Amino acid sequence: MNALCWWLVNLGSQALDRDERDAVRGDLLESGESAGQALFQVLGLVARRQAALWTNWRPWAALVFLAAPLGLIFGLACKAIAHSGAIYLWLYTNYWSRTILENAAYRNDFIGFAAGTLIDYAMLAGLAWSSGLALGFLSRKSLAVSGSLFGLLLFFGNFLYVPGAAPPVRSVNAVVFEYTFYRVLFPLMLQALLILAPSLWGMRRSLRRFQENHS
User: Fold this and answer.
1) Alpha-carbon distance 18 to 124, whole Å?
2) I need a labelling partner for 24 at 20 to 30 A (CA). Which of 115, 162, 191, 212 fits?
3) What is the pLDDT of residue 87?
């Protein structure tokens, strides 16, 4: 139990500035307090520091105008791209033949699908990186809260948009989305690779610039 509390103390102290974090750890070691008391003090200090941050307009602006709307927009956009991409992916993987590359019309369709998909993916990843950079710049020390809300609303888009749900006539779309991979896993994979990873990279890049400018 003590080991778990000390682990939580170290984890919670990561929310503090480096100088303050080192000072708090040194004080706790010198005081000889129990792990439970140390955890209580660290969590209280972190809560006070976080509360002080939200007296400024920047965290609220990042939360309301960036994290919340962008999380929903990216979630829905990625789900829509995954929807159309899943249909073509299912068709090509199930009905692939040499004729697709030998026939000029089929080949052009395939090249157009592949090029268009890559462009959509690149644009989505680039916008996600830029959004993460902007969110990190505006949030700074409150990025843990804003970033968490962004991630939650990103994946919440899966529940707002369900492609191919209960069509009146059985179609190719309905057949595709009977598979869990295309209905659930494929959209989640795209959201993680095209939105979450680039946005986290942008947030980290923004924080690094902020730390370099204030070091």
Assistant:
1) 34
2) 212
3) 86
Residue 6, CB-side half-sphere exposure with 13 Å CA sphere: 10
142-178 pLDDT, tens digit each = 787 888 889 888 888 767 655 544 444 445 577 888 8
Classify the phi-psi angles of 161: left when phi > 0, otherwise alpha if psi is within -120 to 50, otherwise beta.
beta
Q: Is the domain of 44 the same as that of 145?
A: no
Using one digit for the tens of pLDDT, what is the confidence trace for 32-61? 677 677 777 777 777 777 777 778 888 888
Last residue of a domain, one of 53, 72, 95: 53
Query: Do 33 and 72 lie in a common domain?
Result: no
DSSP 98: T
**How many distinct structural domains can be found in the chain?**
2
**Res 171: pLDDT:** 56
* 93 in the same domain as 43: no
| Beta strand residue intervals within 79-165, DSSP E | none
Q: Are 128 and 194 in contact (CB under 8 A)?
A: yes
Query: 187: exposed, middle or buried (C-beta count within 10 Å: 0-12, 13-18, 19+)?
Result: buried
35 Cβ partners below 8 Å, 6+ apart?
1, 2, 3, 5, 6, 9
Angle between helices 2-13 and 18-31 (to 10 degrees): 150
Range of the domain at 154: 57-213
Q: Give me the percent of the chain exceeding a pLDDT of 90.
A: 20
- Judge if 67 and 44 occupy the same domain: no
